[in-house]
Design a protein that fits this description.
Helices cover 40% and strands 18% of the residues. It is an alpha+beta fold. The strands form 2 sheets. Strands 4-3-8-2-9 form a 5-stranded antiparallel sheet. 30% of the residues are buried.
């Protein structure tokens, strides 16, 4: 603890080089404010990296004709609805962040605000894919002995688990490293030679997702859903629910090229 009493002139040191103690709490408050603004700056950068039109995975056009142009109106409505939901969620994150920044600018800097910023940064980092994620979820294995499971099937699987609340997803092909699904992920290529984010993946495919296990499993098992689609393609989808699923693959955060924060 520091002594707040003022020394008399006879005993006060006259050394200009002696370390100066803070006269009040302004310096400590300013230190907290600087750290808080720094954390919120990182949060804003991560959030902007996650907000875009390509909120969910998309299919690139290929020579085999696998593209959204060939999708049915019902499928396109599902994709559009998922896009809208994800965009609405991220816009709410922006609104919450702006409120926090407003409180900071009004002088309400505190350790509580700093902790809130750190929590939000961790949450957004999981969404963007720059940190590992651990939690309950499901692990799915797709076997494809007849090489009939195309890119649209993998896309459908990812879309379904995302719509069911999956917070982190990774896909791994036989003998390859896992690939983290991000907001700009894409899948293309003919069955048996799929490309995910520019990397070739081959069956059997392993897909891990963190979220509520029963909800994710139910979404995949609805009649006419992912399990049926895999079966119609000559493959088989096995789903294992677990209380501990690890998403270890990471994505590199890309700098903004065009988008800037609005006023």
């Amino acid at each position: 603890m520091t002594d707040d009493s003022t020394p008399n002139d006879d005993t006060a040191p006259n050394d200009d080089t002696a370390p100066k103690q803070p006269q009040n709490k302004h310096e400590l408050t300013r230190s907290v404010s600087v750290r808080t603004h720094w954390i919120f700056g990182i949060v804003a950068a991560v959030l902007l990296a996650g907000l875009g039109i390509a909120i969910v995975t998309q299919v690139k056009s290929t020579d085999s004709g696998d593209s959204l142009d060939a999708a049915s109106p019902a499928d396109l409505l599902v994709v559009l609805d998922t896009l809208n939901q994800r965009e609405a969620g991220l816009r709410q994150e922006i609104a919450d962040l702006e409120q926090s920044l407003s409180r900071l600018h009004s002088g309400e800097s505190s350790e509580a605000a700093l902790a809130e910023a750190r929590d939000r940064l961790r949450s957004l980092s999981i969404q963007v894919g720059t940190v590992e994620a651990v939690g309950p979820g499901v692990t799915m294995t797709i076997t494809d002995p007849n090489r009939g499971v195309g890119s649209e099937v993998i896309l459908d699987l990812v879309q379904e688990v995302r719509a069911a609340g999956a917070e982190a997803i990774q896909v791994q092909g036989e003998g390859g490293a896992p690939i983290r699904i991000g907001v700009d992920s894409w899948v293309s290529g003919p069955a048996g030679e799929l490309q995910l984010d520019g990397r070739t993946i081959r069956a059997p495919y392993s897909v891990s997702a963190v979220g509520d296990p029963p909800t994710l499993a139910a979404a995949l098992n609805i009649p006419g859903g992912v399990v049926d689609n895999v079966s119609r393609s000559g493959g088989k989808l096995a789903i294992e629910q677990s209380e501990q699923v690890t998403i270890s693959a990471l994505r590199e955060a890309k700098p903004r090229q065009y988008a800037q924060p609005g006023k």
